[in-house]
Structures are given as C-alpha cells and as structure tokens.
Amino acid sequence: MKKLNLKVFAFLSTLALSSYGQNLDLTKKDSIVESYWLVSLGTNIVDDSGDEFRELFDIKEAWNIAKYPSRLSFGRYFKNGMGIEMIGTFNKYREGKIVDDVVNPTDINFFSIDLRTSYDLNMIIGDTGFFDPYVGIGVGYTNANNQGRGTYNGVLGFRTWLSDHWGLDFNTTGKWTMNTDNATNLIQHAFGVAYRFQVEKGLSRKGLEKLALLEEIQEKQQKVKDSIAKLEEDERLLAERMQKEREAVELAAAEQSKQKAEEARREALQDEVNSLGNILFEFNSSYLTDKDKELLDKLTNVMRNEPDLVIKVMAHTDSRGTQKYNQWLSERRAQRTVEYMVLKGVSEARISHEAYGETKLVNECKDGVYCTEEEHAKNRRSEFVIQEY
Predict the structure, then answer these.
(1) Contact 213, 198 (CB under 8 A)
(2) Residue 111: left if φ>0, alpha if ψ -120 to 50, beta else—which one?
(3) 13 vs 10: CA distance, rounded Å
(4) Which of 7, 249, 262, 337 has the most CB atoms within 10 Å of its CB?
(5) CA torsion through residues 46, 47, 48, 52, sign
(6) Which residues contact 228 (CB under 8 A, 6 or more apart)?
(7) Mean pLDDT across the chain, nearest whole number?
C-alpha cells in the first residue's frame, strides 16, 4: 500500500510539474536585441555661449537649433554592451545668440565629425527592452565660430525602442577643446530617429532565468519518472544523505566556532601582553632597569596563568653606532630579557628570542637624521610576540 501511494504521489508530481512548465513557455517578450548596426538621422542643438556648463538651459539666449535634419550617425553595437559610432552634424550660430560670451553679429556655419565609443547601461541596471540608456567618450573635430578645434567628448543619452528596428535617440555631448588657447568648450544636444539592422537577438535575463527554470522542471520530471520503481530506496538514500549533510554542517559550524574562539583567545592574550608595554633600554646598555624587571614580572605571571603560552622576544636598538655593534647589542638585550624570565621560572622551551639591531626602527630616526633622545629611546626596545598558545 505504501509503495502504491508513493507511485500515485510521483504521478501527481509529474502532472503538476508538467502543468506548471506549460505556464513558463518562452515568448517574444523574453528575448532582447544583443547586437546590431545602427543608423540615425536627426537634428542637433549647439550651446557655445561660454557659460554652457553653468547655465545648461539658457535656451533663448544661447541655444542654436537646427530646423532641419542636420545630424547623421552610423555605428556598430556588440553583445558586451560596447558600441562604436561615427557622427556628422551641421548647424548655424544664429545672429543675436551669445557665442563665446559675446553676442553673435551674423550667422556662422558650424559643423563637426566625431568618433565615439559608448556603453549600454542596461548591462548594469538590467534589461528594459524599450529603454536603452548609455554613456560614452570619444574624440572629434569641430569648426565653430570660424575656429577649427580637436575635441575630447563625453556623452550621456538614451534610446527608446518602438520595435526591434525603429526607435528614438536623445543625447547630450560635452566637447572639451584640445587647444584652449584658441577655442572654448561647448555642449551639443541631439535627437532623432534611429534604425537598427542585422539585428542579433538573444534571451533577456528574465528569459534566461525562465529557460533555466524550464530545464530544471524537465529534469525534475525525468527524475520523478525514473524514481517510481525505486522510490523507497531513493527515500532511504536521501535521508542518509541529508543526515550526513546535517552532520557535515554541524561539524563545519563547530570547527568554525572553535577557530573563532582560538582567534579571539589569541587576540585577547596578545592584547594582554601588549598592554604591558615594551622593555625600553638605556642608551648603549643591555641591562634591565627596575621598571623593566617589574614589566617582566607581570609577563611571567601571565605565562604562569597560561601554561601553553609560548612567546618570542624581539630586541632592537636605535640607529646610533655601527650596524655590527647594534646587532650585537640587540642580541645582548634579547638574551638578558630571556635570562631574567628563565630566572623567574619560565621554561626555556617557552621563550625564544631574535635580534634585529637597527633594522626595524619605529620612527624616522635613521642614520643621518637628527632626533631627540626621547625619539631615539623608542627604538631601544624589546617586544613580545605570541608564537603558540
């Protein structure tokens, strides 16, 4: 009876998954345009008033609007979101408009040719299908106000697509002249009709997710069909696997907890050792002062309370004297520090030492640099680092 119930359950599961999968069929809405060639025709507006980057919308006084198709572009856009486009524009600086901070006395022709690369922001914000924002950079040549100039360009714009082929393009380009001695910067707005051809389409992110889900459903359907004859055995194996996974998770959690506890303990011990401070030696001396011995007594107590604690003494000197002498002096300081702690009952197996001479100064008091005695004193030290705990 139990086996029959399991078979009925498997059949109903297959039927439910099949019905659910039918509601997830891929449709045209799940595809997007990925790469294409583009041509656009439109008009452009030029603002070369001299304050165009401060007053963006002084339309009446500064905007020169071409009243007929005056912008043509041709480009190629790729699956990775990058595109390259060549653009040609024509306009006129109108009489009475402000150009280069003065009122223009007569109509003056304007033309430019630009090459730019752009990046589709949908690659970052997600597919929208009809709305296609982009940013770009490029270079170009502009003849404006009877002055030719090379320009560095930055563009911000968007296209809104009415179909797979037709859409509208709106953008604003800032043009910074390469030769600031003879020409000024300007802004050029543009809008027009865009047509794309040799369109290659692919699945959108939503379509890819739906495809992955469909494949997952189909796989589950097959698994359910294949499991009818051996469902009881699979159930047992599944239970064993889940139990092992739970045990593995618990073991990993316990190990992680142990590691965190050990790390916390090490940090706490090092903080306790650091709080004692460093041994600070007198100039040209390796002898311990009463204050130094008091510090080492405290460190000895810490090691008595932590019987597994192993430390290293690292001894240093200031930069005065020869390197060879300072290396010898730091070794003497390290040895005297260790000898005192051993005398106080610390096992030699629990304390090691290393001498660095003047190679690890804590400040800029190296050879040839004037420093006060207080600054030099900071380098005449023995430090303590935990090796084991």
Answers:
(1) no
(2) beta
(3) 5
(4) 337
(5) negative
(6) 6, 7, 10, 11
(7) 87
Show the 3-state SS of the chain.
CHHHHHHHHHHHHHHHHHHHHHCCCCCHHHEEEEEEEEEEEEEEEEECCCCCCCCCCCHHHHEEECCCCCEEEEEEECCCCEEEEEEEEEEEECCCCEECCEECCCCEEEEEEEEEEEEECHHHHCCCCCEEEEEEEEEEEEEECCEEEEEEEEEEEEEEECCCCEEEEEEEEEEEECCCCCCCCEEEEEEEEEEEEEEEEEECHHHHHHHHHHHHHHHHHHHHHHHCCCHHHHHHHHHHHHHHHHHHHHHHHHHHHHHHHHHHHHHHHHHHHHHHCCEECCCCCCCCCHHHHHHHHHHHHHHHHCCCCEEEEEECCCCCCCHHHHHHHHHHHHHHHHHHHHHCCCCHHHEEEEECCCCCCCCCCCCCCCCCHHHHHCCCEEEEEEEEC
pLDDT in tens, 14-50: 555 555 555 567 776 677 888 999 999 999 999 988 7
Q: How sure is the predictor about 53, in pLDDT bands with cuts at 50, 70 and 90?
A: low
Q: How confident is the model at residue 258 (pLDDT cuts 50, 70, 90)?
A: confident
